[in-house]
């Protein structure tokens, strides 16, 4: 469980007394619930997993903490760039900056002038440096920076291990069918990812309108994965939290954070097809791949000092089905519309900014909408 998003577990009041139910104990759910509690409403958060935090989660199973989802500490600094085991020279960094700026302009032009064309097919590099710049461009994450994670003040009542399966808003109160029985409330805030909504993990009565279904379809989850490997001694002669993007001799791109939080460890990042492959092959293969890739760059020492590894599985997780949404504002706005008045939508995908910042803003927006519904009686 992430410390910043930890919540006191409190048994909800009698179901009939609930003003609001928030589905999902991630950033959006906590923001919404905290705002409603601040407005003196009787609220409970229902969470499917056996933990809170959603896609903000610090795994400590290897003895050292690693953030499986969004980083719980802000990342800074441009990454070091390495090709064939050697960091770029000053002249090469300068050329890389020029190539990257040119690529950004080309990508922008392609996206506006040829929206149906996959830029990854059109943009090709001539040498390793250009190929690395292209790989880095397509791996850039779309998130707004945040200084600290939104922290929930006070006690938010959360019922973990309570997966909501159906939301019925056809009666006087909204009824939720869950693994832990039935709940009713005057208003419900849904914060589950589009991967869950699109995968049929949650059904609605009345059914979702076509506009929302179309929005869900055009906001698919980006696939991303991380592998964390630990070492018995110092193997990287780099500062704490050093970031690296490298093009290896075998033609693969490695994106990593070395010595995260000053620990003798490395965190490797994977996107799209490589993230899917990593999850399909399983954590053992992922760890072996990470160690080989790092050994290619930093030498045999990586193998001899290797201790243990762990990998994320966001794509296979039934309560995420992916890492985040990277889509334009119009479907996000459509997704943010209330469903049948007393069912309000929040979550990163409903916000134009997305990520942690957007999830938090969406929760606050949804709480206001829920208060307006409650005000109408
Ligand atoms: C690998 C990775 C890296 C990331 N990096 C960044 C970054 O650098 N910066 C950034 O801003 N963001 C980043 N993000 C994205 C960020 O983590 C998310 O945008 C944000 O945490 C989403 O919050 P949320 O509350 O909208 O959704 P979630 O955190 O997904 O919360 C939804 C909750 O709903 C629960 N749920 C699902 N289905 C049900 C159900 N049927 N019944 C009950 N509960 C259910 C889930 O278990 C979950 O707890 C990253 C994510 C990943 C995975």
Describe what this molecule looks like in 3D.
With 377 residues, the chain is an alpha/beta fold. The protein has 3 domains: 3-56 and 150-220 and 324-376, FAD/NAD(P)-binding domain; 58-77 and 221-311, no CATH class; 89-139. Helix content is 33%, strand content 22%. The chain is built from 11 helices and 20 strands. The chain has helices spanning 27-38, 90-113, 119-122, 128-139, 194-198, 210-217, 272-281, 283-298, 301-305, 329-336, 355-376, and strands spanning 20-23, 43-46, 58-59, 66-67, 80-83, 86-87, 158-159, 164-168, 174-178, 181-185, 187-190, 203-205, 221-222, 224-231, 242-247, 253-258, 265-271, 306-311, 324-325, 343-345. The strands form 5 sheets. It has a 7-stranded mixed beta sheet with strand order 6-5-15-16-17-14-18, with helices on both faces. Strands 7-2-1-11-20 form a 5-stranded parallel beta sheet, with helices on one face. Helix 1 (27-38) packs parallel to helix 11 (355-376). The longest helix is centred in the first third of the chain and has 24 residues, at 90-113. The radius of gyration is 22 Å and the shape is globular. The site of flavin-adenine dinucleotide (FAD) has 40 residues, from helix 1, strand 14 and helix 11.
């Amino acid at each position: 469980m992430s410390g910043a998003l930890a919540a006191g577990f409190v048994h909800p009041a009698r179901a009939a007394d609930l003003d609001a139910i928030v589905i999902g104990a991630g950033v959006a759910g906590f923001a919404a619930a905290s705002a409603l509690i601040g407005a003196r409403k009787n609220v409970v958060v229902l969470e499917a997993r056996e933990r809170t935090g959603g896609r903000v989660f610090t795994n400590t199973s290897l003895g050292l903490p690693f953030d499986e989802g969004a980083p719980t500490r802000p990342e800074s600094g441009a990454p070091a760039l390495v090709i064939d085991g050697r960091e770029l020279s000053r002249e090469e960094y300068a050329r890389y900056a020029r190539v990257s700026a040119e690529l950004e302009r080309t990508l922008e032009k392609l996206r506006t002038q040829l929206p149906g064309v996959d830029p990854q097919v059109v943009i090709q590099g001539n040498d390793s440096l250009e190929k690395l710049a292209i790989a880095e461009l397509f791996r850039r994450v779309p998130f707004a920076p945040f200084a600290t994670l939104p922290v929930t003040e006070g006690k938010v009542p959360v019922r973990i291990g309570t997966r909501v399966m159906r939301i019925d808003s056809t009666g006087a109160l909204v009824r939720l069918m869950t693994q832990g029985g039935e709940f009713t409330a005057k208003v419900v805030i849904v914060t589950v990812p589009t991967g869950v909504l699109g995968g049929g993990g949650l059904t609605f009565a009345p059914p979702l309108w076509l506009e929302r279904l179309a929005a869900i379809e055009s906001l698919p989850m980006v696939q991303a994965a991380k592998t964390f490997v630990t070492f018995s001694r110092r193997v990287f002669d780099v500062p704490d939290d050093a970031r690296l993007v490298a093009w290896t001799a075998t033609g693969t791109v490695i994106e990593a954070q070395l010595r995260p939080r000053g620990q003798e460890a490395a965190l490797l990042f994977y996107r799209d097809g490589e993230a899917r492959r990593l999850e399909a092959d399983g954590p053992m293969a992922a760890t072996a791949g990470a160690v080989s890739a790092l050994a290619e760059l930093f030498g045999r020492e990586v193998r001899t000092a290797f201790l243990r590894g762990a990998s994320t599985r966001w794509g296979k997780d039934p309560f995420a089905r992916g890492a985040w949404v990277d889509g334009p504002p119009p479907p996000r706005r459509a997704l943010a519309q209330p469903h049948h008045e007393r069912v309000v939508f929040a979550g990163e995908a409903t916000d134009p900014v997305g990520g942690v910042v957007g999830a938090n803003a969406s929760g606050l927006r949804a709480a206001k909408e829920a208060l307006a519904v409650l005000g109408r009686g």
